[in-house]
Amino acid sequence: MPKGSRRSCARAGRAVHVKSFEAHRARALLAARLQLIETTTRLSNHIRGVLKTFGLLPGTVRGLRFDARVELLLEGRAELALIVTPLLVAWRQLREQIAVFDKSILALVRASSVWALAIARKCGSGKARVALARKLSVILHAVWRSGEPFRAASTQAAA
Q1: Model-level pTM?
Q2: Which domain holds residue 82?
Q3: Distance (Å, rounded) from C-alpha 131 to C-alpha 115?
Protein backbone atom coordinates (compact mmCIF):
# COMPACT_ATOMS: atom_id res chain seq x y z
CA MET A 1 0.00 0.00 0.00
CA PRO A 2 1.44 3.43 -0.90
CA LYS A 3 2.83 5.53 1.91
CA GLY A 4 0.25 8.35 1.57
CA SER A 5 -2.88 6.22 1.55
CA ARG A 6 -5.65 6.54 4.09
CA ARG A 7 -4.89 3.17 5.57
CA SER A 8 -1.32 4.15 6.39
CA CYS A 9 -2.61 7.41 7.88
CA ALA A 10 -5.07 5.47 10.00
CA ARG A 11 -2.30 3.16 11.25
CA ALA A 12 -0.17 6.14 12.17
CA GLY A 13 -2.97 7.34 14.43
CA ARG A 14 -3.64 10.59 12.60
CA ALA A 15 -7.17 11.89 12.66
CA VAL A 16 -8.88 12.17 9.30
CA HIS A 17 -11.62 14.76 9.03
CA VAL A 18 -14.89 13.40 7.69
CA LYS A 19 -17.72 15.85 7.03
CA SER A 20 -20.89 15.28 8.96
CA PHE A 21 -24.12 14.06 7.47
CA GLU A 22 -25.56 17.56 7.99
CA ALA A 23 -22.72 19.14 6.02
CA HIS A 24 -23.25 16.72 3.14
CA ARG A 25 -27.01 17.31 3.28
CA ALA A 26 -26.58 21.11 3.20
CA ARG A 27 -24.23 20.94 0.22
CA ALA A 28 -26.54 18.55 -1.63
CA LEU A 29 -29.51 20.83 -0.93
CA LEU A 30 -27.68 23.88 -2.26
CA ALA A 31 -26.41 21.99 -5.31
CA ALA A 32 -29.91 20.71 -6.10
CA ARG A 33 -31.31 24.25 -5.82
CA LEU A 34 -28.60 25.56 -8.11
CA GLN A 35 -29.35 22.83 -10.67
CA LEU A 36 -33.05 23.77 -10.71
CA ILE A 37 -32.22 27.46 -11.08
CA GLU A 38 -29.90 26.77 -14.00
CA THR A 39 -32.55 24.56 -15.62
CA THR A 40 -35.18 27.28 -15.12
CA THR A 41 -32.90 29.83 -16.75
CA ARG A 42 -32.22 27.57 -19.73
CA LEU A 43 -35.94 26.85 -20.10
CA SER A 44 -36.94 30.52 -19.95
CA ASN A 45 -34.24 31.37 -22.49
CA HIS A 46 -35.58 28.63 -24.77
CA ILE A 47 -39.12 30.00 -24.43
CA ARG A 48 -37.81 33.48 -25.27
CA GLY A 49 -36.04 32.04 -28.32
CA VAL A 50 -39.17 30.30 -29.60
CA LEU A 51 -41.20 33.48 -29.14
CA LYS A 52 -38.53 35.59 -30.82
CA THR A 53 -38.62 33.30 -33.86
CA PHE A 54 -42.24 34.38 -34.31
CA GLY A 55 -41.50 38.06 -33.66
CA LEU A 56 -42.71 38.10 -30.06
CA LEU A 57 -40.61 39.49 -27.22
CA PRO A 58 -41.78 39.01 -23.61
CA GLY A 59 -39.53 41.83 -22.36
CA THR A 60 -40.24 43.21 -18.91
CA VAL A 61 -43.69 44.39 -17.97
CA ARG A 62 -43.79 46.04 -14.56
CA GLY A 63 -45.58 43.86 -12.03
CA LEU A 64 -45.95 40.78 -14.24
CA ARG A 65 -44.00 37.58 -13.82
CA PHE A 66 -42.35 35.93 -16.80
CA ASP A 67 -45.10 33.32 -17.22
CA ALA A 68 -47.85 35.96 -17.17
CA ARG A 69 -46.04 38.01 -19.82
CA VAL A 70 -45.67 34.92 -22.01
CA GLU A 71 -49.34 34.05 -21.61
CA LEU A 72 -50.29 37.56 -22.74
CA LEU A 73 -48.22 37.07 -25.88
CA LEU A 74 -49.81 33.68 -26.56
CA GLU A 75 -53.39 34.99 -26.54
CA GLY A 76 -54.95 34.36 -29.95
CA ARG A 77 -51.99 32.26 -31.14
CA ALA A 78 -53.16 28.67 -30.61
CA GLU A 79 -50.49 27.07 -32.83
CA LEU A 80 -47.71 28.77 -30.91
CA ALA A 81 -49.38 28.02 -27.58
CA LEU A 82 -49.16 24.29 -28.41
CA ILE A 83 -45.36 24.63 -28.41
CA VAL A 84 -44.81 27.08 -25.57
CA THR A 85 -47.46 26.08 -23.01
CA PRO A 86 -45.86 22.73 -22.04
CA LEU A 87 -42.53 24.52 -21.59
CA LEU A 88 -44.24 27.13 -19.44
CA VAL A 89 -45.87 24.43 -17.30
CA ALA A 90 -42.45 22.85 -16.72
CA TRP A 91 -41.00 26.31 -15.89
CA ARG A 92 -43.72 26.86 -13.27
CA GLN A 93 -43.12 23.44 -11.69
CA LEU A 94 -39.40 24.14 -11.45
CA ARG A 95 -40.12 27.50 -9.78
CA GLU A 96 -42.36 25.73 -7.25
CA GLN A 97 -39.59 23.27 -6.41
CA ILE A 98 -37.08 26.11 -6.02
CA ALA A 99 -39.49 27.64 -3.49
CA VAL A 100 -39.51 24.30 -1.62
CA PHE A 101 -35.69 24.33 -1.54
CA ASP A 102 -35.73 27.95 -0.34
CA LYS A 103 -37.97 26.90 2.54
CA SER A 104 -35.59 24.05 3.41
CA ILE A 105 -32.60 26.38 3.32
CA LEU A 106 -34.38 28.80 5.63
CA ALA A 107 -35.05 25.95 8.08
CA LEU A 108 -31.40 24.92 7.84
CA VAL A 109 -30.25 28.45 8.65
CA ARG A 110 -32.60 28.61 11.63
CA ALA A 111 -31.30 25.25 12.86
CA SER A 112 -27.75 26.56 12.53
CA SER A 113 -28.30 28.92 15.44
CA VAL A 114 -29.21 25.96 17.68
CA TRP A 115 -26.12 24.15 16.37
CA ALA A 116 -24.00 27.21 17.23
CA LEU A 117 -25.36 27.27 20.79
CA ALA A 118 -24.33 23.63 21.22
CA ILE A 119 -20.81 24.48 20.00
CA ALA A 120 -20.70 27.48 22.34
CA ARG A 121 -21.43 25.26 25.34
CA LYS A 122 -18.80 22.76 24.25
CA CYS A 123 -15.99 24.92 22.84
CA GLY A 124 -16.72 28.52 23.78
CA SER A 125 -18.60 31.40 22.23
CA GLY A 126 -15.71 32.59 20.03
CA LYS A 127 -15.43 29.29 18.17
CA ALA A 128 -19.22 29.09 17.92
CA ARG A 129 -19.39 32.51 16.26
CA VAL A 130 -16.71 31.56 13.75
CA ALA A 131 -18.37 28.20 13.02
CA LEU A 132 -21.79 29.78 12.52
CA ALA A 133 -20.37 32.56 10.36
CA ARG A 134 -18.57 30.03 8.17
CA LYS A 135 -21.62 27.80 7.82
CA LEU A 136 -23.85 30.73 6.88
CA SER A 137 -21.24 32.13 4.49
CA VAL A 138 -21.08 28.80 2.64
CA ILE A 139 -24.87 28.81 2.28
CA LEU A 140 -25.02 32.45 1.22
CA HIS A 141 -22.14 32.02 -1.22
CA ALA A 142 -23.96 29.16 -2.90
CA VAL A 143 -27.10 31.27 -3.19
CA TRP A 144 -25.06 34.21 -4.51
CA ARG A 145 -23.30 32.01 -7.10
CA SER A 146 -26.62 30.78 -8.43
CA GLY A 147 -27.66 34.33 -9.27
CA GLU A 148 -31.19 33.65 -8.09
CA PRO A 149 -32.43 35.80 -5.21
CA PHE A 150 -33.30 34.04 -1.99
CA ARG A 151 -36.84 35.01 -1.08
CA ALA A 152 -37.11 34.27 2.63
CA ALA A 153 -40.12 36.55 3.10
CA SER A 154 -42.16 34.74 0.44
CA THR A 155 -41.31 31.31 1.89
CA GLN A 156 -42.38 32.45 5.37
CA ALA A 157 -45.66 33.76 4.02
CA ALA A 158 -46.30 30.47 2.22
CA ALA A 159 -45.68 28.44 5.38
Answers
A1: 0.64
A2: 21-158
A3: 9
